[in-house]
């Protein structure tokens, strides 16, 4: 049985009008979407494609021109649904004159949380995002990454079922990007549903189960990431410990079956994985430089 | 060819007969037709909507929308009927009066004059108009079904939101507003006030005859200016800044009702303003009391001694030292040892704190009858230590400068010079007709009728000498005479029940000087048979329902006394000046809260600068609402706005008649419409000065509990719809756009 649909748009359209009611921009055209419980859903598209508009319509920050936006079965404009959702805005629009504790305490009060529960939750979230040492500093003194993390914390203050993330990794360094993605995965494992929009494709590819691609307000593609990215007429074989002679033999076998060998060589890892590994090793062994030759030596050893 | 019958009867006259335009039906034809169409349409809609309802929620929305729609149409029709005098008479005769008579047994015979019912009627009227406009707009945009359902859902949503508001969320948002105020350096207001007060002494007029009034007016008016500025700027700019910075997005995506956002802002700013006012109030009070506090020295050498004839003792007279730009004349009568004063007078005290009672006391102070002249609204108590030639006289702190009188006012009526009853006196040619006059040496009289007086209201312990009556009369002289000597008048008492009238005494009135007359509890008058008659005030002169008449007449021919109703009152008690000063600040608090409410309301749908302008516009219109009413009523020369613009552009003067013609008719018709709108606008716009107690506190009158309660209720009557309106506007707004 398929999980229930928690976010749904039916023929959702949004037209921005000027003061006199004249149409200015048609931001969204008849969008039909479904997001199921427990999945990480990505909204992709270039700038101005309608991603943020869709999220804002689902949050009730904008009202649809036509169609419906439903969250947890309720109209998106219903305030009651906000009890069960969390929202990380694009730029973490938070009150910069509050510190981290005050920020989370304030948002906790908006959920009618009693004081003891609020205190505990605030402490847990600050620890989760790694801002324990900076919890008493005003947000105006935070770096962009720290601000995003506290923004994420406020989005989770009520332990929501659905989390809306608008450009969650925007402006983060690779370490924080990596941590954010791990966090997203953890949240999914806890059974939460995540709807994120981003134009950083690599980040979306790493975490999303399903994606929708918007362009000029219209849905252009929709489906599971692995299905959409599969290049169906190419076969990939990943091996290790192959000698050059074995590689040549494989070429011949492929040619014998009228196949084409596009390339045989060493695959590359991603720059992000390299970056993360270097930093982790640096933290584990401070003062020692991780040299590029070491990698070459290791490779030789493996090949050997 | 000859064309006959060139003159053709006008079409409408031909169709409907001559004089058709005087018919009530045709005068309101357009309005009536519209009302009928809308009503029929609404009722028809009810039938359709019942069939098309789907879920129970939608059905409820549909019914609520339709019900409100029909009610709003009725309100529209009533408002339209009020637009002309004839239709207003129709509405009054056939609808208002029957309703009034039906409800009178339940609500009281004069219930329609009650402020509560007026407020309910105005609130219902405005709600009906707004709903009708919104409903019709929704129908135009989405069709009758969708439009009505949307409006109904909106109404249901409003009630649902109100039922679900959370105090914790409101206080959280209020706390945020407080933090924001601190971040915006609101404490600067406090610092500015302190600086102003520090330099106030440089520009306050030390020669003022009423320094107490002056100081109180200065500090209170400073406070009003700063408080209004703070409230105006903070309230109008806060929400638009949040919307612009998008910090409101993270709030609105929480389970926060828009009503909580509005209430939280208002409460937060009001709290900050309250703290500010409290601090400023303490500083103002200390500054006022300390600035006015002074004393004088009285040296024995400066006193001139004179022996009084008839072994009545010795009189010492002299002037005190000069302090705060004035001095006092002091008169001390030293009675012979063992004698008693006929009436206790003066305010001599012994240095140890005892009071001269005028009795046959043993101390030097007991033998003294001292009078310290009242100057600049105050006098001083005289303290004496020692005795005889070695007595040392000192003056205490000022008395009577800072007070809070609790007056009992009566109703004023007049007799003209023939003795006939009149509502007003005569006009001596003064443009300002606040006071009217009575002629001297005639039967003309001013009669104040008091009610509800009881003996226990004036206990002997507080009123040992009798009942104090204070009066401030204007004096109009047709010949100058002796300017230093006042104009003579008489004060008499009359029992309204038995019509028993007694002459009390003569007095001398100086222009705008406050005279205090004591009505003794018991006094002797010459009876009608020539014999002395002892009159008991409360048994003989006060009626069974507490009524008493005080009659003032002028004795001097060709001189006039002028008076208005508040010019004479019984001084029932004195409240605490400090508490009255606080009440003055309560009035400022009420004004500030109203401005905050208006600012937050406008900021829910306007940008920051525009909300600032809108708030100050409404406040100013409220201050000039009486002028706007005069303008709308046509009592101001020059016509309405369109006529005035025309006169300005054509450089025409204000009093000349406009040339008859189509242009004038169009202008006058447009002015009629705007006059109607102006009248309604002036009726609903709040006047913040109604909560201004500055003059009352400065002139030393208590702000009574009735007045204070009324002001609070009026404040609530304005704030409630203002907050609701702000909530509705914010609810309809797309926060992210």
Describe this protein's structure:
The complex is a heterodimer of chains A (304) and B (737). Chain A is built from ten helices and ten strands. Mean pLDDT of chain A is 85; it is low at 293-304. Chain A is globular, with a radius of gyration of 24 Å. With 304 residues, chain A is an alpha/beta fold. A six-stranded mixed β-sheet of chain A has the order 6-7-8-3-9-10, sandwiched between helices. In chain A, strands 2-1-4-5 form a four-stranded antiparallel β-sheet, with helices on one face. In chain A, 37% of the residues are buried. Chain A is 37% helix and 22% strand. Chain B is of the alpha+beta class. Chain B has a six-stranded antiparallel β-sheet, with no helix packed on it. A four-stranded mixed β-sheet of chain B has the order 1-8-7-5, with no helix packed on it. In chain B, helix 4 (56-81) crosses helix 6 (115-142). In chain B, a hairpin with a 5-residue loop joins strand 10 and strand 11 (421-422). At the A-B interface, helix 2 of A face helix 8 and helix 11 of B.
Mean pLDDT of chain A: 85
Sheet with the most strands, sense and barrel status of chain A: 6 strands, mixed
Strand order of the largest sheet of chain A: 6-7-8-3-9-10
- Largest interface: pair, residues per side: A-B, 30 and 28 residues
């Amino acid at each position: 049985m398929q999980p229930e649909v928690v976010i749904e748009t039916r023929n959702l359209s949004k037209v921005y009008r000027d003061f006199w009611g004249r149409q200015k921009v048609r931001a969204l055209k008849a969008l039909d979407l479904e997001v199921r419980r427990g999945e990480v859903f990505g909204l992709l598209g270039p700038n101005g494609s309608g991603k943020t508009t869709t999220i804002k319509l689902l949050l009730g920050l904008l009202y649809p021109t036509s169609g419906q936006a439903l969250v947890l079965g309720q109209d998106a404009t219903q305030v009651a649904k906000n009890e069960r959702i969390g929202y990380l805005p694009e730029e973490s629009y938070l009150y910069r004159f509050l510190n981290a504790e005050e920020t989370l305490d304030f948002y906790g009060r908006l959920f009618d949380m009693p004081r003891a529960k609020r205190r505990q939750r605030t402490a847990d979230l600050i620890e989760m995002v790694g801002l324990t040492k900076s919890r008493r500093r005003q947000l105006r003194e935070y770096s962009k990454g720290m601000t995003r993390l506290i923004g994420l914390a406020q989005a989770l203050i009520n332990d929501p079922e659905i989390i809306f993330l608008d450009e969650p990794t925007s402006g983060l360094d690779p370490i924080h990007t990596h941590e954010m993605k791990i966090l997203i995965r953890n949240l999914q494992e806890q059974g939460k549903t995540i709807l994120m929009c981003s134009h950083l494709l690599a980040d979306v590819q790493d975490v999303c189960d399903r994606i929708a691609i918007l362009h000029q307000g219209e849905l252009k593609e929709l489906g599971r990431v692995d299905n959409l990215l599969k290049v169906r007429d190419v076969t990939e074989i990943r091996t290790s410990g192959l000698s050059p002679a074995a590689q040549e033999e494989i070429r011949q076998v492929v040619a014998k079956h009228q196949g084409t060998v596009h390339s045989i060589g060493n695959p590359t890892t991603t720059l992000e994985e390299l970056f993360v590994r270097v930093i982790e090793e640096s933290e584990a062994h401070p003062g020692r430089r991780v040299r590029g030759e070491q990698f070459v030596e290791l490779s030789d050893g493996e090949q050997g | 060819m000859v064309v006959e019958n060139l003159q053709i009867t006008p079409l409408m006259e031909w169709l409907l007969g001559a004089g058709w335009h005087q018919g009530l039906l045709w005068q309101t034809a357009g309005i009536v037709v519209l009302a009928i169409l809308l009503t029929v349409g609404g009722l028809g809609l009810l039938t359709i909507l019942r069939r098309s309802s789907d879920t129970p929620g939608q059905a409820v929305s549909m019914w609520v929308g339709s019900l409100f729609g029909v009610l709003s149409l009725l309100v529209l029709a009533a408002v339209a009927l009020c637009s002309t005098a004839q239709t207003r008479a129709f509405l009054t005769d056939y609808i208002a009066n029957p309703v009034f008579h039906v409800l009178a047994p339940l609500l009281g015979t004069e219930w329609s004059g009650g402020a509560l019912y007026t407020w309910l009627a105005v609130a219902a009227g405005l709600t009906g108009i707004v709903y009708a406009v919104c409903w019709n707009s929704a129908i135009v945009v989405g069709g009758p079904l969708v439009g009505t359902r949307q409006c109904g859902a909106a109404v249901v949503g409003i009630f649902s939101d109100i039922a679900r508001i959370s105090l914790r969320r409101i206080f959280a948002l209020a706390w945020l507003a407080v933090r924001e105020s601190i971040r915006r350096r609101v404490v600067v207001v406090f610092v500015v006030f302190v600086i102003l007060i520090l330099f106030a002494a440089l520009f306050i007029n030390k020669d003022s005859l009423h320094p107490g009034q002056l100081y109180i007016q200065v500090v209170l008016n400073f406070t009003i200016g700063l408080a209004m500025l703070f409230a105006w700027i903070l309230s109008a700019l806060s929400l638009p800044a949040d919307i612009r910075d998008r910090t409101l997005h993270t709030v609105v995506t929480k389970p926060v009702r828009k009503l909580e956002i509005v209430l939280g802002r208002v409460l937060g700013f009001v709290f900050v303003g309250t703290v500010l006012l409290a601090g400023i109030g303490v500083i103002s009070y200390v500054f006022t009391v300390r600035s006015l506090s002074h004393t004088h020295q009285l040296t024995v050498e400066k006193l001139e001694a004179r022996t009084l004839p008839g072994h009545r003792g010795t009189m010492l007279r002299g002037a005190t030292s000069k302090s705060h730009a004035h001095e006092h004349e002091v008169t001390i009568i030293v009675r012979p040892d063992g004698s008693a004063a006929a009436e206790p007078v003066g305010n001599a005290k012994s240095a140890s704190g005892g009071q001269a009672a005028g009795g046959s006391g043993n101390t030097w102070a007991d033998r003294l009858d001292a009078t310290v002249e009242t100057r600049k609204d105050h006098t001083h108590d005289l303290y004496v230590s020692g005795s005889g030639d070695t007595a040392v006289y000192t003056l205490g702190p000022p008395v009577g400068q800072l007070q809070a009188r609790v007056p009992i006012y009566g109703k004023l009526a007049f007799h003209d010079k023939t003795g006939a009853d009149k509502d007003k006196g005569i006009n001596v040619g003064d443009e300002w007709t606040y006071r009217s006059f009575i002629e001297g040496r005639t039967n003309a009289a001013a009669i104040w009728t008091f009610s509800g007086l009881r003996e226990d209201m004036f206990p002997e312990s507080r009123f040992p000498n009798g009942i104090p009556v204070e009066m401030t009369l204007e004096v109009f002289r047709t010949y100058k005479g002796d300017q230093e000597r006042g104009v003579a008048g008489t004060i008499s008492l009359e029992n309204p029940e038995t019509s028993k009238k007694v002459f009390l005494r003569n007095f001398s009135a100086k222009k705008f000087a406050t005279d205090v007359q004591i009505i003794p509890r018991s006094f002797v008058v010459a009876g009608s048979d020539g014999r002395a008659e002892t009159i008991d005030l409360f048994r003989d002169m006060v009626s069974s329902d507490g009524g008493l008449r005080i009659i003032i007449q002028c004795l001097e021919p060709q001189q006039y006394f002028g008076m208005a109703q508040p010019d004479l009152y019984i001084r029932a008690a004195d409240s605490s000046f400090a508490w009255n000063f606080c009440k003055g600040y309560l009035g400022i608090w009420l004004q500030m809260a109203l401005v905050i409410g208006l600012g937050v309301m406008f900021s829910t749908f306007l940008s920051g600068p525009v909300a600032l302008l809108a708030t100050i516009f409404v406040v100013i219109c409220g201050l000039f609402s009486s002028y706007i009413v005069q303008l709308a009523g046509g009592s101001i020369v020059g016509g309405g706005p369109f006529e005035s613009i025309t006169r300005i552009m054509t450089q025409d003067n204000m009093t000349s008649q406009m040339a008859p013609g189509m242009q004038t008719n169009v202008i006058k018709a447009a002015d009629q419409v705007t006059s109607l709108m102006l009248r309604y606008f002036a009726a609903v716009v709040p006047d913040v000065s109604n909560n201004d107690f500055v003059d009352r506190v400065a002139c030393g009158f208590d702000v009574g509990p009735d007045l204070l309660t009324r002001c609070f209720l009026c404040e609530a009557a304005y704030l409630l719809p203002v907050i609701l309106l702000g909530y509705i506007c914010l609810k309809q707004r797309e926060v992210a756009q």
